[in-house]
């Protein structure tokens, strides 16, 4: 019985549909409207279109989101089987003409949608005579002031002017659009205050003014919009505070206020607005605690309170029945143990607590245990959004497989990680998982064919990094927009760049910086690491477009990151010639350590790219040939195969250890061995410890003297070159009368480093040198210590006019 009734109903519906279709097929469009339609199409740039009397119902559906749409809707319920056009949709055709005044020749027209084209000009005055209810010109090139005569379009219920180039103030005449329900002005160049006349728009349900340059405070008159459901004010230019009158908007379901300037404000009263599904109060300088009623909103799906100064403890459980994700990053909440209830969240709720605690060194957030370092590094190479790739000898580690969506916190095994915050709103996907872009067809370096993106904040960090100065290279290429005469070229991506919490790029636009799309650009900045953490943060402050090529395309984008240590400067030893221009540096690579002696020098470059310090000695100066011999003597002092002399007044001898070891060695034993080695290489043989003393110092039973060179003393290596054999012999005989070599060493102020006397010319002297060297023979190093310092290479050349020493 039930089946029979349902079958009869279905037959009735099909019959009526067929009759209606036949009637519409018999109806025709008047010729004057056909002519007007063709004229309108040509005026907008569609020169190949040709409509006729049967064009009613013309429908070109889209398959993909970026496919063009064409739809001509007619009302055919007129006498004599006559139809009249009531709605036009010409969307995503890249029409490059103007908005046609000839539209007035379609007197029954109620709705016009010309979104996603390339139209210019402005809204024609003639349209005011039409009974238009809906105008959508989203994503075009309309410019100039918003026409004041729009106030005469009193039948309007929908007005979308988003993503154009309108400038100036909102006309007060728009306050007469009392039937208006949707009013969208985002991504223009509007300024001035919101006119108080807008308070009369009491039927508003949707109001958006994102990405503009308005002035003044958020007006109190918004309380008049009691039917408002969606309210967006992100980077509008308006300042806080959020008015208390917002509590009157009880019908709100989507509230987004972000990036407003104000000194400090408390959490706005939303206790009457319990139907919210999205609540975004980001970067509003809100302090205090989160009100308990927030966690009782039964329809809340998205909560973003990031980049404020909220404090206090997290609730015992952060969850509601509907919450999809919560972003509390960059706040001042109390640190909690990861095992506490507040940190034990359900798997279907993503919670972002990156930098959410009040601890200055915090990374993981209020629910992350303290992070410790087992080893320290000195570089970072990341291929953002891609796979591992080797560029110029360096391997960029890919993060393309990293997912996690709106509240992602990732830590790699190599002490680096990333945090991504926010949701790409309006893309109809509450649970995005892969925030990456991949355009392999682009004819650019593979490092730039992929990128990581983020809707709000994207932070890369490197933990356990050696303190010091670093060069940070950020690699970008805009791969979502185009560089042609289409609506895809209208996209604007703007974001800020922070390094070590310092703003280094404001409103950074990749396309502008690279002078085009799909073109690489690298921004180089210096950074100082003092707490073993380097942090690079890209932040979307609400500026730029959000709907090109589709909704939800905005926010930071980065292709790759490379971080290398800057040139390290060693302290100047007072007994040497020290000037501001001196290049007192050592240059380290993965395989060897090269020592540059302290001298007034300039930077040089070898053919293989090695940076060196160069000292030029002029034959016309007082330095002359004798100084050249001195420099050769210094080089000669460094030919020991395992140890290098590297004295630093700050005691940072551990830098002599081969960097290939990483942290896989005992630092105490290594430093002990270096100190003993330097004692063994003392310029004066008589001041070197004997073997039994060496063994005692190496096994830790004897204290190793810490001797600082006397700035007024002469380097004994130089003295040896300037002296003669008899002086050295007499000096040796005098020293042999002392009772303890180690005691003399402790009282000496002329300690310098070498691994033997400077060259002497006779066989006897060479024999004595070899004998002394055996007294300082290096014992076996601990098992965890490898080669301490690689060999030092030196080259020199001299001419009749100039002598050049390069080390």
From TrEMBL:
It is found in: Membrane. Residues 380-561 form the Malectin domain. It is an enzyme of class 2 (transferase). Its main location: membrane. Gene3D superfamilies: Galactose-binding lectin (2.60.120.430), Phosphorylase Kinase, domain 1 (3.30.200.20), Ribonuclease Inhibitor (3.80.10.10). Residues 1-26 form the signal peptide. PANTHER family: LEUCINE-RICH REPEAT-CONTAINING PROTEIN DDB_G0281931-RELATED, PROTEIN KINASE DOMAIN-CONTAINING PROTEIN. This is non-specific serine/threonine protein kinase. It comes from Dovyalis caffra.
């Amino acid at each position: 019985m039930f089946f029979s009734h349902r079958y009869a109903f279905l037959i009735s519906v099909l019959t009526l549909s067929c009759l209606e279709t036949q009637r519409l097929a018999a109806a025709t469009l008047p010729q004057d409207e056909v002519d007007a339609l063709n004229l309108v199409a040509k005026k907008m740039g569609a020169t190949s279109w040709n409509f006729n009397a049967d064009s009613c119902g013309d429908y070109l559906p889209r398959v993909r989101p970026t496919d063009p749409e064409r739809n001509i809707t007619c009302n055919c319920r007129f006498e004599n089987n006559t139809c009249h056009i009531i709605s036009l949709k010409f969307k995503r055709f890249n029409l490059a003409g103007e908005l046609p005044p000839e539209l007035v020749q379609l007197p029954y027209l109620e709705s016009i949608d010309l979104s996603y084209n390339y139209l210019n000009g402005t809204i024609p005055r003639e349209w005011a005579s039409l009974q238009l209810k809906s105008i959508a010109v989203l994503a075009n090139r309309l410019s100039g002031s918003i026409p004041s005569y729009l106030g005469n379009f009193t039948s309007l219920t929908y007005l979308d002017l988003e993503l154009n180039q309108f400038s100036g103030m909102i006309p007060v005449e728009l306050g007469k659009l009392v039937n208006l329900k949707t009013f969208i002005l985002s991504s223009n160049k509007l300024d001035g205050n919101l006119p108080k006349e807008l308070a009369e728009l009491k039927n508003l349900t949707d109001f958006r003014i994102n990405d503009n340059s308005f002035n003044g405070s958020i007006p109190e008159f918004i309380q008049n919009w009691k039917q408002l459901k969606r309210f967006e004010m992100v980077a509008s230019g308006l300042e806080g505070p959020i008015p208390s009158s917002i509590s009157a908007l009880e019908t709100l379901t989507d509230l987004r206020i972000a990036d407003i300037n104000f000194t400090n404000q408390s959490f706005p009263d939303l206790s009457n607005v319990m139907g919210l599904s999205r609540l975004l109060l980001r970067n509003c300088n809100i302090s205090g605690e989160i009100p308990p009623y927030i966690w009782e909103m039964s329809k809340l799906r998205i909560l973003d309170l990031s980049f404020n100064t909220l404090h206090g403890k997290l609730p015992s459980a952060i969850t509601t029945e509907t919450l999809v994700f919560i972003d509390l990053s960059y706040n001042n909440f109390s640190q909690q143990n990861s095992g506490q209830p507040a940190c034990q969240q359900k798997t279907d709720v993503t919670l972002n607590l990156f930098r959410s605690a009040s601890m200055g060194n915090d990374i993981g957030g209020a629910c992350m245990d303290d992070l410790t370092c087992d080893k320290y590094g000195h570089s970072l190479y990341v291929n953002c959004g891609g796979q591992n790739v080797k560029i110029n000898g360096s391997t960029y580690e890919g993060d393309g497989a990293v997912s996690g969506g709106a509240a992602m916190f990732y830590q790699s095994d190599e002490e680096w990680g990333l945090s991504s915050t926010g949701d790409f709103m309006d893309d109809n996907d509450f649970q995005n998982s892969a925030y990456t872009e991949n355009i392999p067809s682009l004819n650019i370096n593979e490092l730039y064919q992929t990128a990581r993106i983020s809707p709000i904040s994207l932070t890369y960090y490197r933990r356990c990094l050696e303190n010091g100065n670093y060069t940070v290279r950020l690699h970008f290429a805009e791969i979502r927009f185009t560089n042609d005469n289409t609506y895809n070229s209208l996209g604007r991506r703007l974001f800020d760049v922070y390094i070590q919490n310092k703003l280094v790029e404001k409103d950074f636009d990749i396309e502008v910086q690279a002078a085009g799309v799909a073109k690489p650009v690298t921004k180089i900045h210096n950074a100082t690491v003092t707490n073993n953490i380097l942090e690079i943060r890209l932040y979307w402050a609400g500026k730029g477009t959000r709907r090109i090529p589709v909704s939800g395309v905005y926010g930071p984008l980065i292709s790759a990151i490379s971080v290398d240590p800057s040139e390290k400067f060693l302290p100047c030893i007072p007994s040497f010639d020290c000037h501001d221009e001196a290049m007192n540096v050592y240059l380290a690579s993965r395989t060897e350590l090269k020592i540059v002696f302290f001298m007034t020098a300039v930077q040089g470059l070898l053919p293989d790219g090695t940076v060196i310090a160069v000292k030029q000695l002029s034959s016309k100066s007082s330095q002359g040939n004798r100084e050249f011999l001195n420099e050769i003597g210094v080089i000669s002092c460094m030919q020991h195969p395992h140890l290098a002399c590297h004295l630093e007044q700050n005691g940072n001898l551990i830098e002599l250890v081969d960097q290939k070891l990483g942290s896989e060695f005992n630092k105490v034993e290594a430093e002990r061995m270096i100190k003993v080695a330097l004692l063994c290489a003392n310029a004066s043989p008589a001041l070197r410890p004997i073997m039994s003393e060496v063994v005692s110092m190496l096994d830790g039973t004897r204290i190793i003297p810490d001797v600082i060179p006397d700035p007024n003393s002469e380097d004994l290596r130089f003295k040896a070159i300037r002296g003669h054999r008899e002086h050295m012999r007499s000096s040796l005989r005098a020293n042999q009368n002392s009772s303890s070599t180690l005691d003399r060493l402790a009282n000496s102020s002329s300690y310098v480093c070498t691994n033997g006397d400077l060259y002497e010319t006779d066989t006897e002297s060479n024999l004595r040198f070899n004998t002394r060297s055996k007294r300082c023979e290096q014992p076996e190093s601990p098992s965890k210590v490898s080669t301490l310092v690689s060999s030092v290479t030196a080259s020199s050349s001299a001419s009749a006019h100039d002598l050049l020493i390069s080390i």
